């Protein structure tokens, strides 16, 4: 019972904490975001203490909500009873008029019917919380982090691990962001007009960054971080379903996430080694996610808008639709990369386009494209440029040059599975291995 109760608490905290925090912030205001998070954390602690002994309550979600709101009420009452001299440095001033009344009214209304009473509010609260996290007052580099913490329920240690950052640095980033929210300027409400469009773009960018970090970590021991991908996709799906936020760009991003995430199980083997697209078992691709992705992509195409998410979703759709690697329509993939370059010329897009050209027209055509990128300062620090060029050279039989590029790639930051793959490719360029390859 004890072990089961602990597992249930952790699961519910992951799935419910963002909703509870958002509901409390809606009632108490953006300046109380720290109090809301502390109240939700206190609810978790109380559950860990009570449930192993008293048993799991009939409605555990409602129990956590009740515990969180009671913890918030207790804190507000303590603050109201304190004199200014008793407050800690930096603590908020007097409890605002109506805060206790609003929280008490929500307590009475919610009762033990959490799922029934709050279902209509959950989506609004969660989405408004994301918009609050992406308020112009919040530094851009803190927005995705703040969403993961307050809406996704991620611990600081998990966020730091995901971004391979120091926990102290992540904590400081969150503190600064919350201080901006507590300053009194930002409010917990739907933005309107142009501000809605701008804030929505910021929310989409934050979710895109979080998903990409989960889909292909730049460093660390794992290539995939499924929890980040799942949470980013969940939040994007909320945006796509809500009448105030759904639209072509939101659907395009949701489609991209569905199509990319559908290949997750096939991208690494049982030992965590990277499996490239041509080596993946397509039977492991999630067909339900692919179908869902195509539905969102179809909705995204109803308007004349062509965002970066449309282009990337189109690329992912080309791979998802191919029955096999050999049947991939590389001419369509080159078309989408050309469209991306028309929007914004980027050496990273040109790198990916060179791979597509190599697949369409042969390795030497791809190498000619890469030669034009050699010396670009951005790519000179990018592991994948040298890994890609090394692989094309290896396929062309230029093993010595390929080995040199693989060596250079290994000097640059990458994930452990990518490093292992590059080491295997470098080993295949040794004279004995190359001779065996030529004789096959």
> What sequence of helices (H) and strands (E) makes up the elements?
HHHHHHHHHHHHHHHHHHHH
The total beta strand count reads: 0
The low-confidence parts are 89-95, 110-120, 434-440
Choose one word for the global shape: elongated
Largest sheet: none
As a percent range, the share of helical residues equals 55-70%
Content of β-strand = under 5%
Measured on Cα atoms, how large is the radius of gyration?
25 Å
Q: In whole angstroms, how far apart are the ends?
A: 60 Å
Q: Structural class given helices, strands, pairing?
A: mainly alpha
Mean pLDDT: 83
Count of helix runs: 20
What does this structure look like?
The protein has 440 residues and is mostly helical. The chain contains 20 helices and no strands. Helices cover 69% and strands 0% of the residues.
Task: Give me a quick take on this structure.
This protein has 440 residues and is an all-alpha fold.
Task: For this entry, give a set of tags.
440 residues; mainly alpha; 20 helices; disordered C terminus
List the helices and strands and how they pair.
Blueprint: H1 2-28, H2 33-54, H3 60-81, H4 99-110, H5 114-133, H6 140-150, H7 156-162, H8 167-181, H9 193-215, H10 226-241, H11 248-261, H12 287-300, H13 308-321, H14 330-343, H15 347-361, H16 363-373, H17 383-395, H18 399-410, H19 416-427, H20 431-439
Helix pairs in contact: 1-2, 1-3, 1-5, 2-3, 3-4, 6-8, 6-9, 7-8, 9-10, 9-11, 10-11, 11-12, 11-13, 12-13, 13-14, 14-15, 15-16, 16-17, 17-18, 18-19
């Amino acid at each position: 019972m004890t072990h089961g109760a602990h597992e249930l608490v952790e699961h519910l905290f992951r799935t419910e904490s963002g909703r509870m925090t958002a509901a409390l912030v809606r009632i108490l205001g953006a300046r109380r975001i720290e109090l809301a998070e502390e109240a939700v954390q206190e609810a978790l602690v109380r559950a860990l203490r009570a449930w192993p002994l008293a048993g799991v309550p009939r409605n555990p979600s409602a129990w956590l909500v009740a515990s969180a709101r009671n913890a918030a009420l207790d804190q507000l009452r303590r603050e109201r009873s304190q004199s200014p001299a008793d407050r800690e440095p930096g603590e908020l001033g007097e409890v605002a008029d109506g805060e206790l009344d609003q929280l008490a009214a929500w307590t009475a209304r919610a009762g033990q019917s959490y799922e029934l009473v709050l279902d209509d509010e959950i989506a609004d609260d969660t989405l408004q919380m994301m918009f609050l996290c992406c308020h112009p007052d919040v530094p851009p580099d803190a927005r995705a982090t703040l969403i993961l913490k307050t809406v996704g329920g991620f611990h600081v240690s998990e966020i730091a691990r995901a971004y391979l950052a120091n926990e102290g640095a992540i904590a400081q980033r969150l503190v600064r962001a919350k201080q901006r929210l507590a300053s009194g300027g930002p409010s917990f409400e739907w933005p309107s007009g142009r501000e809605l469009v701008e804030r929505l773009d910021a929310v989409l960018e934050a979710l895109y960054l979080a998903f990409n970090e989960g889909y292909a970590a730049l460093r660390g021991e794992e290539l995939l971080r499924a929890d980040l991908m799942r949470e980013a996709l969940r939040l994007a799906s909320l945006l796509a379903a809500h009448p105030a936020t759904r639209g072509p760009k939101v659907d395009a991003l949701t489609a991209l996430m569905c199509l990319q995430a559908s290949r997750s199980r096939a991208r690494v083997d049982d030992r965590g080694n990277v499996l490239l697209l041509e080596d993946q078992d397509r039977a492991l691709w999630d067909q339900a996610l692919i179908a869902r992705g195509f539905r969102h992509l179809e909705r995204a195409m109803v308007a004349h808008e062509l965002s970066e998410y449309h282009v990337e979703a189109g690329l992912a759709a080309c791979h998802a639709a191919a029955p096999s690697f050999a049947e991939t329509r590389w001419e369509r993939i080159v078309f989408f990369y050309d469209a991306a370059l028309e929007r914004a010329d980027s050496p990273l897009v040109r790198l990916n386009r060179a791979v597509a050209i190599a697949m369409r027209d042969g390795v030497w055509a791809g190498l000619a494209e890469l030669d034009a990128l050699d010396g670009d300062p951005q790519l000179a620090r990018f592991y994948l440029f040298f890994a890609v060029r090394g692989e094309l050279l290896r396929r062309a039989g230029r093993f010595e040059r390929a080995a040199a590029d693989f060596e250079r790639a290994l000097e640059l930051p990458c994930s452990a599975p990518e490093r292992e793959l590059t080491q295997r490719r470098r080993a295949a360029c040794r004279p004995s291995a190359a001779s065996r390859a030529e004789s096959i």
